[in-house]
Amino acid sequence: MTLLTPRRTFHLAKPLRQNAGIWSDFSKRSESLRIPSERIRKYILEGGDNKDNITLNGPPSLKRKFSRLKYKSPEFIDDAFQTSYLYLQEKAKIYYEKSLQDTELSPEGKEKYEILTDINNPEVQYNFQFHNKLENNPKFINYELPVYRELGKKHWESYSQMLLMQRLETLQVIPDTMPTLVPRMEVNIKFPISTSVNKWIEPGESLSSNVTSFEPIFKLQEYDSLDIENQKYTILIVNPDEPDLENDTFKTSLCYGLMNIQISYNDNIVDLRKLKGKENILMSYLPPVPEKNVGKQRFAVWVFRQENEFTELPSIPGRDRFNIRDFVEENKLDPVGAHVWRSEWDSNVKNIRELYGLPTGRVFTRTRTI
Amino acid sequence: MNNRQTIRSLIQQSRSWTSSPSSYSYSYIHNGATIQFIRNKRTTSAASSSSLKKMGRNSAESLSPPLQRAVTQLSVLSARKKMPRLLKLSNEDLIKHQTIEKAWMLYKKDKAIERSMRLQRQYESIQDALDTLESINPHLYKLATSTNGEGNGRFPLEFRLPTDAPPNSEKLWPQQFSSTNLQK
Q1: What are chain A's domains?
Q2: So where does this one cross the membrane (chain A) (predicted)?
Q3: pLDDT tens for residues A73-128?
Q4: Which DSSP string do the residues of A296-309 spell out, in sequence order?
Q5: Are A72 and B19 an interchain contact pair (Cβ–Cβ within 8 Å)?
Q6: The overall pTM is greater than 0.80
Q7: d(CA A60, CA A39)
């Protein structure tokens, strides 16, 4: 009697499946629709009884040998999977042939059939579900392909998009900066040069002045199918909470402005160091330096699709009293994405002011002195 | 069978149970001794049961009834214990599971569409036949489509199957019946 149940090492009754179906044919289809690890691919498509996995003694995704030995698959899962796979593949074949044959199809129609071909493909599902969707590796998740964009969009809508809209609404970014937003693009920001926080910022997070001392990088993920080669984007960061003592209210100031930004579906990080020169910069970055006792200030990031490329950037009088709505209307910008973070006075603000050559800030008290 | 082999067989046994952890309690006879499990907790130990057997006592009586009751109660106290353990699937098996679910869903959907289309065709066919009948013979059409059985020689739709004892509101059940009455 042995501790392990003996596995079959010979007499393999199950033949290796022939590469007959459309999901196994990569002559015309992208390599990103395939699981790159041959071992995992075989484990899923041919079951645990194949040659590789008998020596491995369990699912290859489990790293520890002990876990692999302990793991037990549900009974007959491979048989049921084979039947299901062939059934789904037969259905997908109809869509695949339609997407190839119909020459009169519109691009949207073709894309729809491409999505339907691969949405149930277990290899695509594996690649999407178990790899990083935000910092995607095109080997696994290639957003150039409509099916991955569809999956990515569903994933974004399931949580991040709702979170963003909730934060924009509760923090009154809508309608204090722009009237509303129909989100069509996932926007993420990160402050990579900072010393402490090297992570993607959640919408509405309060950040210290040290973190925000240098400009953020933006990740603009498009899920819609459009002519991305010729599409240009504008990014604005505005602060609607600048105190306006003359009128006893608040005014909006522009903290950062970038225009004519070019992205692609996979390579979509907007980093100032990657931009060629100064021609994209509408307004250079001014870090949040809230004055003492003004409370938390909101910094709203807005991303717009441009109607066409600006040969010359529009001139604006200055940061102060920036009217974002007029600017958007004049330049025919289409708001597609947003983000927000908050900043408050802290002991480091003095250093940031020195670094950028700004005057020392005011200190607000309960009794009005100015 | 020595002690190590006993443990091995237990491990193997428990491994086969992990795939179906839904049963509330189960017992397992080993060397004539019963090892009882309640909510995946062993309530009698193999060692104690075998030593008890040497002493000539039945292993089923290894725990006294009050103690056994206490063990059972403790095992059901926690709410977590009442839920069967979550089936843990590896990534590969999770994808296989989702594929199977998806295929089954689409298959059922196809069947439902097929059925509704068949019913639709049947309905249209009936409609066609009745339209033809109406144009040929309005009287027969009227008889064929009338729902009450008057005058057309058909049973009314409200008609029930004839039974030996039709329901009688006065005497649904012989309440007063007794065998002594019958003997008289």
Answers
A1: 26-158 (1.20.58.1180), 169-356 (3.90.280.10)
A2: none
A3: 998 999 999 999 999 999 999 999 998 887 788 888 899 999 999 999 999 999 99
A4: -EEEEEEEEEESS-
A5: yes
A6: no
A7: 7
